[in-house]
Structure formats: C-alpha cells, structure tokens
Amino acid sequence: MTINRRSFLARSGALGAASFAAMHLAMPRAYAQTEDGTISIALAARSPNGINPQQSGLTGGDNWALYQVFNALVASKPGTFAVTPEDFQPALAESWEVSEDARTWTYHLRRGVQFHKGYGEMTSKDVMFTYGRQLDPEIVSAGKVLFGNIESIDAPDDYTFVVTLVRPDPLFNASTAVTLAASIICQAAFEEKGEAFNLDPVGTGAYYVESTDESGINLTAFDEHWNGPAATRNIRVSFIADTTARTLAFASGQVDMIEGVRQPGWIPTMRQRDANTIFDATAPGSFNTLHLNLQREPLDNIKVRQAFRYAIDNSQIAEAYGELSTPMVGIIAPQFAGSVTKEELPEELKYEPSIDKAKELLAEAGFPDGVTIPCFTSQREDYATIMLMIQEQLRAAGINLDLNIIDHATMHAENNTDKNSLTLNSSSFPPVPTMPFLQRLAASADTKPDGSGQGNYSHYGVAISGIDDLLDQAQDEPDFDKRIEVIKQIEEKVLTDLPLLGIITLSYVIARNPRVDLGFEVQSGYAYWPLNQARITG
Fold it and tell me: Which of 152, 231, 306, 324 lies 20 to 30 angstroms, CA to CA, from 26?
C-alpha cells in the first residue's frame, strides 16, 4: 500500500517521534539527483554476504539484489502476494498443471530463456540442479525447510519439470516454487565458479551483477531478459546499517529509496520534512506474536494466559503505528485465507480487552496481588517498542514484566536455547495458512535447550496437547477450501489454549523519492519487490 499523508498523520502515535527530532532538524529539505540512469536503494544491512539464493545467512539487502538477478518458475503479480492457486503468474514456467490429489506438479518451461554472461539457454537440467541441491541432505542451503514435502523430481525432457510431493499441497507454488530459495541457478556457472558464484552469480533475472564492493552491489539491465529489458539501466543496492545515516543519505538525494524504520513517529517526521516523500508498505508484513512458555510457572496456568489476553489491547498497539499495522485476532494475518474474525468466533474466544476481567482471572489463578515474570526482548526498534507497550498494558492488570532489552543477535541466541519466558517474535510468512503453525506451534518445531530445535518457544504440543493432529489433517487435504476449514478449527484451538498470542502485523516500509516510479502499487508481499519496471520520471 502507498501510505496517504493525511491519514497517517491523523492516526499515528507520538511514540518514537522524539528520537528523530534532532535528525529532522538537520535534514535538507530538497532532493538532490542521483546519477542519471541509476536508481539507488539503501538498506539496513551490512556488507553483502553474497547474491546466491541458496546461500545461508543472507541479509535483507542480499535478498533485494537476489530478486532482481534471479527468477523462479512462477511469480506473484508485482506488489502483491498470490493468495489462491489461481493468483500465480507464469515466469520461467509458462504453464503448469497439478494432479487431482495435489501431489504431482508438472511445469512446462519457457523456451529460449537466457542466462546472464553468455551461459546460454536455461533448460530443465538447471531446474533439476537447483531443486536437487535443496533436496540433498549433505548440502547446507537457505530455505531448505521449504522443500521438505518433495518426494521426487524429474525432467522427462528439456522443457518439462515434474515435482511429486509426499503430501498434497494445493499451494505448492506459494509454499515453495515462488520463493527466493527456489530461484533457478545456472548449473554450468555454479560448477565452474565454485565459491566465486556467491558474488558473481548467474541467473535469468532482469538485472545481472556488474560488481560488488564493501558497501553494496551494482546491477546492470540484462538486455536478453525473457520479459524484455528493464526500464532503468542500473540499480545500486547500498548497505547502510545506521538508521540516521541511512535517513540522511535519502534526504540529501544520495539514494532514491531507503528501508524505513518501523517505529511510531518516524514516518510523520519524514513527512514533515518533505510532504512529497512516498512510503511503500507491504501488508501484512511481519507477524508479531507473543509466545508464552508453557513450561514456566505461572504461564502453565490457563487462567494466567487468559489474563494476558484480556489485558493486552492489540488494537491500541496497532493504532500507535497507524496504517502500518493491523491487530491480529488469531495467528493468521487478517489479510490471508484461513484467518478468523471476532464476529465468527464464539463469545468466550473474542477476548474483548478488559483490565477487570484480567485481574479477576489472576485472582482465580492464585495471584490476587499480581505476579512478576522475567523476560527479555531485542533492542531493535520494533521489538522494543511493541514489548514496552505490552509491558505498560499488563502492569495495569497486575502483571509486572521484569523486562530486559538486549542486543538483537543475543536475543535470538537466547530464545533459540529456551532461555525466555515471554518471547516476542517477528516473522514474515507467505499466504500459506499452514506455515505459521508448522514453524511456531507444531511439536516438531519445539525449541530445545541445546539450540537444536526450532521456533515453537511455547512448547505447545509438548507441554500440553497441541494442534498436530489437526495440522496433519490440513496437510492431507488436497482441496484448498476444505483445507481452510481445518485451519479455522486450528485457530479456534489456539485461541482456547493460548500458547501464543497474535499481537499485530507490521508492514515493511520503503521511503521513495517521488521521481522514481515503480510501475505498480505495493500492496503486499515479501520485504523486497521487483525493480524492472521502475523508472526515473524527473
């Protein structure tokens, strides 16, 4: 979505605005012009780790470059998520069909697709090589978990690729085929270059990597791209981790686009400096959820967990962020299929905010004088801001959070070894309704003290009976609409047991110089989007 100035300023809270006051005063009021024929974007990342979609440890900045350099078999409409099976568009596959049981997917590849730098035509052997590496248990790669449902792959000829699944998946395009990890790499180039491929990759995208340096990546339009040449000749992806430095680079015209700060007050401050600045924001963006550790007292008590739910007013938290945010009812973002609304829930699961009800439940749980719970969160602005608002709301109900705000990397390390009682988590998910549950609430994703587990910080399905049977049922259902019905049952069970609370969705934001026209409106999607249609208009 493109954020409207008037509506945002009217709804935004004051939190966080003061931290940008000095920066606001120092910022110039006019845009300079970046180099003709080049669009520059600056991101909150450090030097590039690589431009290889199968490389582990990628940063968000790497992903922006990757999305320009590589293509997958299918695509979403620019600026949107494909939500239903019918929403996907051809990319490297010009067509596909799926078997009635949703287990066999046959892709018919586009003929004549050229790899960068003279490596010739893409064929099914390159697709087999790409997927085969993700299926090889000996190879460590990014996004490997997305390929776990694949039983076998086959290439009956140069332009046909067949995937057979273990379980039916009517959204295989969304869960796997459209993702960055499934971007098709050139087998010949990969085998020839070895480790050098990471910084000198060969894909089929609208741009190829011209060069890299410590501060960024230079991309040049690929004239032989199967979808035609890009509208702008050059793209510069710069990495500026410091928020103030990145913002000032944008204000002075050194860059055309920057990754925004997801904190109340930042966008209004930027608007006040220059009303013409455009803000592109994805919806839903990240899912911000609060995990309650069921293996820690008093969170093992359902009445305490219900008190949390009544005390936390996530509509109020969302309001502080204005149009960047939407309050969550369950775990699925309200923009996605499978989500539930309060209107369709039974009365006891609506959890209308009530401090009195929260206090009553605490007393019934044996804590008439309140309770103190130690926990920690990240110093990153979105984590810290949301958790501080939650802390304030809970305090009114007699729940005192002994909150420690720590380094972001340390937070992840401590969470992953089960050190936290209350874990605020921010994750982006595609519109695949089973994915948040599989990654955050399935027993198989249980967090382990030795760090070998995954993202189920609540221990749902281990400490108490969880949703695994219903998840199995959903995953075995080939019909999309029937699968959604089971997902809604899962949502109701999670709202009954409350191992995890949906707080808010929070959009990923790019601030954009008005002279840059993307060629489409950003509505939803991952925290990156294609720039092949982007052009400099003035």
Answer: 324
Strands (E), 99-244: 104-109, 150-157, 160-165, 207-213, 216-221, 234-239
Q: Are 13 and 267 contacting, i.e. CB atoms less than 8 angstroms apart?
A: no
CATH 3.90.76.10 in the chain is located at 45-236
State how far the Cα of 175 lies from the Cα of 198, in Å rounded to an integer: 25
Amino acid at 517: D
- The answer to pTM > 0.70 is yes
Nearest to 496 by CA among 350, 355, 367, 356: 350
Q: The tokens 């982007």 sit on which residue?
A: 534
Distance of CA 90 to CAs 79, 178, 226, Å?
16, 10, 12
Q: What 3-state DSSP class applies to 89?
A: strand
Give the separation between CA 332 and CA 491, rounded to whole angstroms.
8
Please give the Cα distance from 128 to 71 (Å, whole number): 15
Tell me the CATH class for 286-506.
Answer: alpha beta
Longest C-alpha distance within the chain, in Å? 73
* Distance of alpha carbon 362 from alpha carbon 348, whole angstroms: 17
What values do phi and psi take at 422, rounded to 5?
Answer: -130, 115
- CATH of 45-236 among 3.40.50.300, 3.20.20.70, 3.90.76.10, 3.30.1360.30: 3.90.76.10
Q: What is the dihedral of CA 34, 35, 36, 39, to 10 degrees?
A: -60
Could you state, in chain order, the average pLDDT of each consecutive group of 10 residues for the chain (538 residues)? 38 40 42 66 78 71 88 94 88 97 97 98 98 90 83 98 95 92 96 93 97 91 96 93 88 91 81 89 90 96 98 95 89 88 94 97 96 94 92 97 90 91 90 88 90 88 95 90 94 97 93 94 87 91
- Sheet with 257-259: list strands edge to edge: 207-213, 216-221, 234-239, 38-43, 257-259, 509-512, 278-281
Residues 320, 444: Cα–Cα separation, whole Å = 36
